[in-house]
Every structure is written in structure tokens, then in C-alpha cells.
Design goal:
Layout: H1 3-24, H2 35-78, H3 88-106
């Protein structure tokens, strides 16, 4: 795992931790000295982590789209024109039609 991936995972873990911390805070205790500062610090850290994770996901999404485009383009370039495989019956019918045309050419006055 590269450093960017580790930082993104750490930011996501911090985001979960700060949300859990905020959910444990009792609103009535906010009036106690220092509690509001704890709330603001946890809230700021949560939002900072959220922004970091959002940026990382946007970047990852762009990388995914780039790989999708790269592989799809190469695949389209390498895919031959759609040809229907010929069966033995197709070959036999084509030979029969050629023989029939030759016969009709050689016997123009013969009507079936």
C-alpha cells in the first residue's frame, strides 16, 4: 500500500472515530469548562478528514475512469469487425448456388 492510500485510510478511520466521539458528547455538558473546545476540535477534525477522504475518492474515481477508458479503447481497437462464422451448411449452399449458376449459364434454354 502506498503512502497516499495509507493516509486516506487513516483519514477515514479518524472520521469514524470523530463521529463516534461527537455522538458520545452530552449536550448538557457543553457548558462545562473546555467541553465546547473539545466539541469544536472534534468537529473540525471530522470535517478535515471528510474533505481529505472526498478528495481521495474523487482522485480514485478519475483513475478508475481513466483505466476504463484506456482498456475500452484498446479493446475496441483490437476487436475485429464482427464476422459471422461460416458453417458447413453455408459452404455447401454457396457451392451449390455456384454450380447452379454455371449450369444455368451452360443451359440457357432449359426451364424447370
Amino acid at each position: 500500500m502506498n503512502q497516499s492510500e495509507e493516509e486516506t485510510i487513516a483519514a477515514l478511520r479518524l472520521l469514524f472515530a470523530k463521529i463516534a466521539e461527537l455522538s458520545q458528547m452530552n449536550i448538557r455538558e457543553m457548558l462545562a469548562p473546555g467541553k465546547y473546545g473539545e466539541y469544536r476540535a472534534a468537529l473540525d477534525a471530522a470535517y478535515d478528514s471528510l474533505v481529505f477522504v472526498e478528495d481521495a475518492l474523487d482522485s480514485l474515481g478519475m483513475k478508475l475512469e481513466n483505466q476504463h477508458w484506456r482498456i475500452s479503447s484498446a479493446f475496441e481497437e483490437l476487436t475485429p469487425l464482427p464476422l459471422q462464422p461460416r458453417t458447413r451448411a453455408d459452404t455447401a449452399l454457396e457451392l451449390f448456388e455456384q454450380e447452379l449458376q454455371r449450369w444455368e449459364h451452360n443451359h440457357p434454354n432449359f426451364n424447370v
